[in-house]
Specification:
Distance between the termini: 36 Å
InterPro entries: F-box-like_dom_sf, F-box_dom
Strand order of the largest sheet: 1-2-3-4-5-6-7-8-10-12-13-16
Protein name: F-box domain-containing protein
Shape: globular
Strand content: 15-25%
Number of helices: 14
Radius of gyration: 24 Å
Organism: Arthrobotrys oligospora (strain ATCC 24927 / CBS 115.81 / DSM 1491)
Pfam families: F-box-like
């Protein structure tokens, strides 16, 4: 077996091994082995993440808010060269909550200044910038200093040569000012989180404070129209149950047209529902992976069943029965899926309270499914037969 020292002659393999270690472990390895120090140095600088709450894109690179304080992190960034020459190795920067949230804002001032200087003087050759766009409660007009680094990032994005790889991934709780701070045509991944709170009369996710659902739909469609290179779209809403205003036919058509125009979209996930549980948006033909979670109306199921979808992965994680109203349960019990337009599936996951016939119809039309996972209280396989089962895979 080759030793780690021997692997220094093949730095690409060693970097892949080091990617499974946390930042703290890499720092320890760097300080204890001189031969591995250059590769560890490159690994520490390759991906810089300033996000405190989870790291779905780059595991092991994030900040441990309890163990790594900001002065230590700044020291880490300037490790072995206060001239920030380490940014030569940086390909990804995640501008996250550690830079924007009020509770960290003052402590992170040194980091923001350092990053702004790097962007403005082109000391870094990024391939990807990830931004957790500040909470919808931040007022871009009253607290402009919070967003100065995003102004710098936009200037940097515009100056990037078109023949060099560069993309932006955005997590946002508002569409307000997105076009102001981002080159939307460079966004390839968009995670939009809509928070509904019953004690707040204003919804901060939208530009119009007390706008109607049609105004919100129109604004969101306009934002999607400016993201032609979007590859992954995720909608997260905490409004699983309760009443929601129904969008007009005109605004629904505009939103459908916007989704249809996303010719590069590969993956689409919806947690909750997009504006209304009856609104089913047909994904563009380019989409190969679909995931739906939350409360879904029978009219949504009807539109889904009748839509021709050529996808390889499908997940339904519906709400459990105890999370649904009696009316929703009765509606699902009365509805039975008799036909589906889904073809080409390789992976199928079903969970929660789903309409009868769904599983059987999908499997009948997709005999080449190789990965299956079903969970929930009831599965419906045969007309009129209800079979109780546990989670199982085969």
């Amino acid at each position: 077996m080759a030793s780690l020292i021997a692997l220094t002659r093949v730095p690409e393999i060693l970097l892949d091994i080091l990617s499974y270690l946390s930042n703290n472990d890499v720092v320890s390895l760097q300080s204890t082995c001189k031969a591995l120090s250059p590769v560890c140095h490159k690994r520490l600088w390759s991906v810089l993440i300033f996000q405190l709450n989870g790291d779905p894109w780059y595991p092991n690179h994030g900040i441990d808010s309890l163990k790594v304080r900001y002065h230590k992190l700044t020291e880490l960034l300037k490790y072995r060269g206060a001239d920030t020459s380490g940014f030569f190795h940086t390909k990804v920067i995640w501008f996250g909550s550690a830079l924007f949230e009020s509770r960290h804002f003052i402590r992170a001032e040194g980091l923001r200044s350092l990053l702004r200087d790097v962007l403005n003087k082109n000391k870094v050759d990024l391939q990807c910038a990830i931004v957790s766009f500040p909470s919808h409660r931040f007022d871009v007009n009253n607290t402009p200093e919070k967003f100065e680094i995003l102004d710098d990032l936009k200037r940097y994005s515009r100056a990037r040569p078109s023949n060099q790889k560069f993309e932006i991934k955005v997590q946002a709780e508002t569409v307000n000012s997105l076009s102001k701070y981002f080159c939307l045509d460079l966004i390839t991944e968009f995670v939009f989180r809509v928070n509904y709170k019953p004690y707040e009369t204003r919804n901060y996710s939208w530009t119009v404070a007390f706008g109607s659902v049609d105004e919100n739909v129109t604004e969101f469609a306009a934002v999607l129209n400016m993201m032609p290179n979007l590859k992954t779209f995720t909608w997260i809403s905490n409004k699983h149950v309760g009443k929601a205003p129904v969008p007009s036919e005109k605004s629904s058509e505009d939103l459908q047209k916007a989704f249809g125009g996303l010719k590069h979209l590969k993956k689409m996930e919806v947690d909750g529902y997009i504006f209304h549980p009856s609104l089913f948006l047909v994904p563009p033909e380019s989409v190969k992976s679909l995931k739906f979670c939350g409360n879904i109306k029978s009219s949504w199921w009807e539109n889904f069943a009748s839509s021709p979808l050529n996808i390889t992965s499908l997940t339904f994680d519906a709400l459990a029965a105890h999370c649904l109203s009696y009316r929703d349960i009765e509606e699902l019990l009365e509805y039975r899926v008799k036909e589906v337009g889904v073809r080409g599936l390789k992976t199928l996951w079903l969970s929660g309270h789903l309409p009868s016939g769904l599983r059987a119809c999908i499997l009948e039309k997709n005999p080449e499914v190789i990965s299956r996972k079903f969970s929930g209280k009831y599965a419906y396989d045969i007309e009129g037969e209800r079979t109780e089962f546990r989670v199982y895979m085969w």
